[in-house]
């Protein structure tokens, strides 16, 4: 892989991590309220997938989407200002953590009804196909969404009409507090796509290079007329479901295993689910970011000092974003009404 | 001579004209294509515009309505047909959580030029799951507009206006009206989409209604005239927004209000109409506002009972009589 791509992936992951950790801090200070679903642990998925897409492609996301917007290129300032509910937020302070939109970057929104991103992505892909466009649509959702009717309805329609749509399941193994073995009869999510003749593969979502490569290949198949594709990225969130959730339902040993990732993960992925043992934990490896940096250093793509430089740089970006958000004005009710009526033309209604 | 068209034909003409004029207009739904539409509204369009613009969908109401939402985000003008309003309950996530919210919660970045056409109301002995009126559910959602055409002319005008609008609009079509006939001037300038219309002039009371019951109210008004009661009949044509001025102006003259609806009475559309007009026109009213509505009961299959659950012409006559001549002891049915 090219050096530039590797650096971009690393920077995006570090930025995502730093941004989210800071968001948690600001939540504690009371600058951010409501539901806040954080991404640490899952960075390799967003960075790997979105970096493999082109600027004309569309991205539809769910409610754990701050990092998706960041990777897509929305300035951290506007993402943070949205979390703060300010006028300069990417949705003008009307959307919040779960409803981030950036029309100019074809970031088509974060949706907070589980499974809702799927039919919306189908609609976008339908129009691309109707216009015979070359763009692809990327649809993110979690493992909790695959038991919604919309998921199945969408796979069926996408396959039926061969729409240019890439389904990306960020499988972090938990539907809030319910582990996948307790919510799904079939825990290998990618296998469900076979019911609709949609080519699917499972990738290690802790390995950004694997995610990037799988996405690149899937998009290639889509652009050559292969119809919808499906990627299941197995990943893990280090934190609870949201700031309101301490995540205590998960055994500490499991969290630790995922933070340390390989090779313990292999044990967790067995169909017959069991928690990793302490002995298995002893053989801990590096986490998703550490894995990439180790790879880059070993292969001579980056020196340790360069990685430190990137860390400093993204920390500065996040600090600047927070200062920007703090300065940004509060939106007023007049603006709220204007947003509600943004699609009203000058037509006389009554 | 203005040609006469059936209600479904008027809708069909509107679709055809809009689709011919703008490639961004397309329609989708169950059996809208090859089959021609359950009420024939999309008849002939599949052959003319092809499968991408007249799309037969699987039975996935939430899925294909969500498809319409996504398509509207890209600036196309999808017209989603949901076979009956009863099935729309499955699509409320796409309509209420998505279509009505996206323009707002994106901070004004996206318009939502989506039209959802839904046949509904009580038809003939279709049973409780196929005989509902759900306008109250939709009326309570900020960000939606709702049109309720009662005549072929309005069906033609309002569908064209809905397609031209950049806002999400629900067109509630009444299943018993598809084969009603009326003059349709294809070239005349339409009134604003949500303006109410006075169907009949009178000075003794105002009957406010919409959709099929606006027609029944006119029949009742004709009977009442025989008794010397002159009812003014206002057809709202729209349930969101509601043209309050037209109603209030009429009440300034008649001082009595009867609201007639097919919807169930409790928290139905009529409750909003009656309360708002009572607030606004309290000092011009000579009598308490009266509501005549469907009974709070699932629609029975039995034909006689079915009719008993929704206001009929004699019920409207009786209610109007009781409102105008309480001294005679006249009682509403």
Question: What is shown here, in short?
Answer:
Chain A is built from 14 helices and 8 strands.
SSE layout:
The complex is a heterodimer of chains A (350) and B (333).
Chain A: H1 3-29, H2 43-52, E1 58-61, H3 66-72, H4 76-83, E2 107-110, H5 117-130, E3 137-142, H6 149-160, E4 165-171, E5 174-175, E6 178-179, H7 180-183, E7 200-204, H8 208-226, E8 229-234, H9 252-260, H10 264-268, H11 278-282, H12 288-298, H13 304-327, H14 333-340
Parallel strand pairs in A: 1-2, 1-3, 3-4, 4-8, 7-8
Antiparallel strand pairs in A: 5-6
Helix pairs in contact in A: 1-2, 1-3, 1-12, 1-13, 2-3, 2-8, 4-13, 5-6
Chain B: E1 4-6, H1 7-21, E2 25-29, H2 45-49, E3 54-56, H3 61-73, E4 77-81, H4 85-88, H5 92-99, H6 102-105, E5 115-120, H7 135-139, E6 145-147, H8 152-164, E7 169-174, E8 181-183, E9 197-200, E10 205-209, H9 212-226, E11 231-235, E12 238-240, H10 244-254, E13 257-264, H11 269-281, E14 290-294, H12 303-309, H13 313-324
């Amino acid at each position: 892989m090219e050096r530039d791509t590797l650096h971009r992936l690393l920077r995006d992951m570090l930025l995502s991590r730093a941004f989210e950790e800071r968001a948690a801090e600001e939540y504690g200070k009371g600058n951010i309220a409501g539901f806040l679903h954080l991404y640490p642990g899952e960075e390799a998925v967003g960075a790997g997938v979105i970096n493999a897409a082109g600027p004309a492609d569309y991205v539809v996301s769910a409610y754990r989407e701050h990092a998706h917007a960041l990777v897509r290129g929305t300035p951290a300032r506007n993402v943070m200002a949205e979390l703060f509910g300010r006028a300069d937020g990417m949705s003008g302070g009307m959307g919040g953590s779960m409803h981030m939109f950036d029309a100019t970057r074809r970031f088509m929104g974060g949706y907070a009804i589980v499974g809702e991103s799927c039919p919306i992505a189908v609609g976008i892909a339908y129009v691309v196909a109707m216009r015979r466009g070359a763009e692809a649509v990327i649809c993110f959702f979690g493992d909790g969404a695959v038991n919604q009717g919309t998921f199945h309805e969408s796979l069926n329609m996408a396959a039926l009409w061969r729409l240019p749509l890439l389904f990306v399941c960020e499988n972090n193994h938990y539907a809030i507090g319910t582990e996948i073995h307790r919510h799904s009869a079939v825990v290998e999510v990618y296998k469900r796509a076979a019911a609709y003749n949609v080519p699917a593969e499972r990738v290690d979502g802790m390995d950004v290079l694997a995610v990037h490569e799988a996405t690149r290949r899937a998009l290639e198949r889509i652009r050559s007329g292969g119809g919808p594709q499906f990627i299941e990225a197995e990943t893990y969130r280090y934190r609870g479901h949201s700031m309101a959730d301490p995540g205590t339902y998960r055994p500490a040993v499991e969290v630790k295993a995922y933070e340390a990732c390989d090779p313990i993960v292999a044990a967790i992925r067995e169909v017959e689910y069991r928690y990793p043992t302490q002995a298995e934990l002893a053989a801990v490896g590096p986490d998703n970011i550490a894995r990439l940096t180790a790879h880059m250093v070993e292969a001579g793509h980056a020196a340790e000092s360069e990685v430190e430089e990137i860390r400093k740089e993204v920390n500065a970006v996040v600090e600047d974003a927070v200062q920007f958000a703090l300065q940004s004005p509060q939106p007023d009710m007049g603006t709220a009404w204007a947003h509600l009526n943004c699609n009203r033309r000058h037509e006389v209604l009554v | 001579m203005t040609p006469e068209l059936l209600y479904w034909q008027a809708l069909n003409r509107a679709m055809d004209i809009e689709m011919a004029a703008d490639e961004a207009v397309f329609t989708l739904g169950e059996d809208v294509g090859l089959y021609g539409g359950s009420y024939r509204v999309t008849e002939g369009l599949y052959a003319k515009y092809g499968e991408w613009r007249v799309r037969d969908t699987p039975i996935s109401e939430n899925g294909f309505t969500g498809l319409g939402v996504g398509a509207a985000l890209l600036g196309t003008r999808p017209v989603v047909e949901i076979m009956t309003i009863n099935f729309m309950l499955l699509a409320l996530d796409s309509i209420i959580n998505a279509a009505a919210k996206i323009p707002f919660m994106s901070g004004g970045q996206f318009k939502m030029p989506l039209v959802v056409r839904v046949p509904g109301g009580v038809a003939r002995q279709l049973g409780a799951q196929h005989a509902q009126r759900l306008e109250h559910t939709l009326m309570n959602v900020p960000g939606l507009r709702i049109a309720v055409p009662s005549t072929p002319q309005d069906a033609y005008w309002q569908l064209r206006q809905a397609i031209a609008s950049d806002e999400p609009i629900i067109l509630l079509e009444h299943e018993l009206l598809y084969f009603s006939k009326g003059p349709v001037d294809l070239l005349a300038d339409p009134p604003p989409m949500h303006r109410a219309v006075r169907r009949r002039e009178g000075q003794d009371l105002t009957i406010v209604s919409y959709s099929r019951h606006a027609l029944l109210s006119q029949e009742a008004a004709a009977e009442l005239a025989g008794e010397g009661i002159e009812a003014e009949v206002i057809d709202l044509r729209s349930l969101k927004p509601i043209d309050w001025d037209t109603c209030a102006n009429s009440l300034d003259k008649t001082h009595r209000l009867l609201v007639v609806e097919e919807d169930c009475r409790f928290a139905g559309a009529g409750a909003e109409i009656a309360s708002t007009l009572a607030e606004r026109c309290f000092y011009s009213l000579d009598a308490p506002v009266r509501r005549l509505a469907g009974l709070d009961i699932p629609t029975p299959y039995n034909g006689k009972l079915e009719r008993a659950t929704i206001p009929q012409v004699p019920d409207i006559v009786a209610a109007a009589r009781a409102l105008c001549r309480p001294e005679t002891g006249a009682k509403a049915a």
